[in-house]
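Quick one, tokens below:
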């Protein structure tokens, strides 16, 4: 089997949602922002689905698929399989393209954000609430994120920003996460643009991102009356003969 990276399509969304939900079940931010007793997996899946629909048009949302390699085809069983197996989705990455903070949002982007909000309102109605999301904490995190990014994003052209990456747990440590990162960092390298990502899980992500060329840059403390969630921000350094080009 080989791994193929492609832009997310509508039919990929259910598998992508499942991978994200499994991968983030023990994530410190997730445990802080959701009330475990009230958590609704279905409501959460609907919310991630809405985000994916938005991402297909506005983000750089990728999936990693496990597809039969040429060697697999050549192995040739005596009888051809009755049904052709669909490629399995084994990873997902949600990247946002750079946007210069000084430039106003385009009408298209404003309209797309409005559609996303509308879908989330419909989800609230359909599921009679936020499915355990602590809305106050969500906004605490949003505020911390915006303060931190204002402080550390010093490139006026904006950053490629990876805010979710997840690989199916039985497929980790095989280079899939790296492929989902390099599809964008390679593009950024060609354009001379910078990349950034955030994660609330320090172990093992600090090591994993370090291996991918990212360096820890800032820790945000999202504090809800003493209940704190720490989210780390990482910069990607475009290495040139082992020397980081941007700092
Ligand atoms: C983070 C994640 C996407 C990495 O995916 P992955 O496919 O396992 O990563 P890769 O196999 O491409 O590994 C990249 C590098 O990290 C290293 N690595 C992978 N897992 C590691 C671990 N647990 N500890 C230390 N290093 C690790 C690999 O050896 C590789 O380094 P190398 O290429 O120099 O050998 C995956 O662990 C995951 O889904 N985690 C849960 C969700 C999450 O925390 N996402 C990030 C926050 S948005």
């Amino acid at each position: 089997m080989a791994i193929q990276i492609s832009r997310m399509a509508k039919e990929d969304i259910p598998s992508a949602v499942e991978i994200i939900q499994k991968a983030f079940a023990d994530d410190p931010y997730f445990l802080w922002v959701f009330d475990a007793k009230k958590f609704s997996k279905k409501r959460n899946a609907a919310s991630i689905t809405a985000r994916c629909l938005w991402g297909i048009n506005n983000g750089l949302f990728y999936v990693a698929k496990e597809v039969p390699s040429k060697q697999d085809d050549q192995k040739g069983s005596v009888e051809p399989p009755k049904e052709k197996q669909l490629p399995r989705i084994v990873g997902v990455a949600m990247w946002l393209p750079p946007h210069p903070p000084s430039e106003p949002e385009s009408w298209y982007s404003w309209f797309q954000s409005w559609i996303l909000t509308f879908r989330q309102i419909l989800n609230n109605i359909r599921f009679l609430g936020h499915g355990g999301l602590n809305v106050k904490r969500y906004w605490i995190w949003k505020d911390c994120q915006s303060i931190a990014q204002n402080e550390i994003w010093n490139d006026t052209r904006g950053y490629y920003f990876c805010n979710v990456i997840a690989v199916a747990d039985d497929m980790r440590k095989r280079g899939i996460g790296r492929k989902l990162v390099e599809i964008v960092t390679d593009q950024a390298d060609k354009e001379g643009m910078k990349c950034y990502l955030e994660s609330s899980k320090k172990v093992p992500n600090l090591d994993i991102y370090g291996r991918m060329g990212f360096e820890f840059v800032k820790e945000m403390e999202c504090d809800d009356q003493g209940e704190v969630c720490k989210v780390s921000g990482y910069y990607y350094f475009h290495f040139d003969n082992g020397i980081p080009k941007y700092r």
